[in-house]
Design brief:
It is built from twelve helices and nine strands. By secondary structure, the chain is an alpha+beta fold. Bound molecules: adenosine-5'-[phenylalaninyl-phosphate]. Its EC number is 6.1.1.20.
Length: 337
């Protein structure tokens, strides 16, 4: 019996086969268990002899099975390791990487340019109070110019800011010692505009504010001129048109010549060959006063520009909606390698 069992153990090639051998010889219904169960029928002299023999046989078979089990397990592990080896010489799979959105890059470029002229970068909330969005900017309730910027109201007194100009009032208010202010503020703004090639209901603005003693219109012109030349190159033409904003007096709008239309007019520049990129002016004395700055001592200029339109002009993007539809084919063109 032992020889037969050991033979089976030696022949087993898998853990399953080995387990079958264990059940067949050492299991409850196996021959050895049967022998041990039948001990009662044996004579006193036979019992210890047969008992010892049965136990030895059982021990030998069990040892053989355990030994074989280790061998099989080792072989299986070996096989698994072999199958799972990694060929380190294979070329890796490329992981697709993202890059900054064109709008992010433009905003950063504009920030750098103004930081170079001594402006600091500030931020303000997108959900704004009626007070900062309008009243602190000389636009009391019922003022007709409120209609210039159709607004998304949240409650009667809270709205999505329609421009970044509230940050002018917030910054001046926060200056406890009323010292000079020279800041820009980039951020998102919201208007109930109908979307078209140059208008979006959510877009970006960069506000600028410079308040000090003796700030003049010529300072504003100088800063805007330097900005435009650095942004678009010396050959781009700029024009300032008189305009109106309740928070600046006098007010202007700045247009840039629209070279991408090659003089024929296109959806971006309409038929005029110009595109408006910013509004600006000298800070209205009322706005200075409301923020605690004495208009007899201080004067200032402010501007608000649209980076989408600046990017459109600089890179020949023909529709503002490209910035928000996030078509990868569009976005990828502007990723730096
Ligand atoms: C204003 O929002 C003023 N707060 C700007 C200002 C600031 C004037 C400080 C004086 C002093 P306006 O509505 O014109 O002005 O918008 C400013 C710029 O935002 C525009 O020149 C344009 O570049 C951009 N813009 C306006 N509406 C949209 C729109 N719907 N989609 C994309 N860009 C827009």
């Amino acid at each position: 019996l032992e020889t037969e069992a050991l033979q089976k153990v030696a022949e087993a090639t898998s853990l399953k086969e080995l387990q079958d051998v264990r059940v067949a010889y050492l299991g409850k219904k196996g021959p050895i268990t049967e022998v041990l169960r039948g001990m009662g029928k044996l004579s006193k002299e036979e019992r210890p002899v047969i008992g010892e023999l049965a136990n030895t046989v059982r021990g030998n078979i069990a040892d053989a099975i355990d030994g074989k089990k280790e061998t099989i397990e080792a072989a299986e592990l070996e096989k698994q390791l072999e199958e799972e080896t990694i060929d380190v010489t294979l070329p890796g799979r490329p992981a697709p990487t993202g890059g900054p959105h064109l709008l992010t890059s433009i905003v950063e470029e504009i920030e750098d340019l103004f930081i170079g002229m001594g402006f600091e970068v500030r931020e303000g909330p997108e959900v704004e109070t009626d007070y900062y969005n309008f009243e602190a900017l000389n636009l009391p309730k019922g003022h007709p110019a409120r209609d210039m910027q159709d607004s998304f109201y949240i409650t009667e007194d809270i709205l999505m800011r329609t421009h970044t100009s509230p940050v002018q009032a917030r910054t001046m208010n926060a200056m406890e010692d009323k010292r000079p202010v020279k800041m820009i503020c980039p951020g998102k703004v919201y208007r109930r505009d109908t979307d078209d090639a140059t208008h979006s209901h959510q877009f970006t603005q960069i506000e600028g504010l410079y308040v000090d003693k003796n700030v003049r219109m010529s300072d504003l012109k100088g800063v805007l001129d330097r900005f435009a030349k650095q942004m678009f190159g010396e050959d781009r033409e700029i024009r300032l048109r008189p305009s109106f904003f309740p928070f600046t007096e006098p007010s202007v709008e700045m247009d840039i010549s629209c070279k991408m239309c090659h003089g024929d007019g296109c959806s971006v520049c309409k038929q005029t060959g110009w595109i408006e990129i910013l509004g600006a002016g000298m800070v209205h004395p009322r706005v200075l006063e409301m923020a605690g700055y004495d208009p007899k001592v201080y004067s200032g200029f402010a501007f608000g520009m649209g980076p989408e339109r600046i990017a459109m002009l600089k890179y020949g993007v023909d529709d503002i909606r490209h910035f928000y539809t996030n078509d990868k084919r569009f976005l990828k063109q502007y990723h730096q390698a």
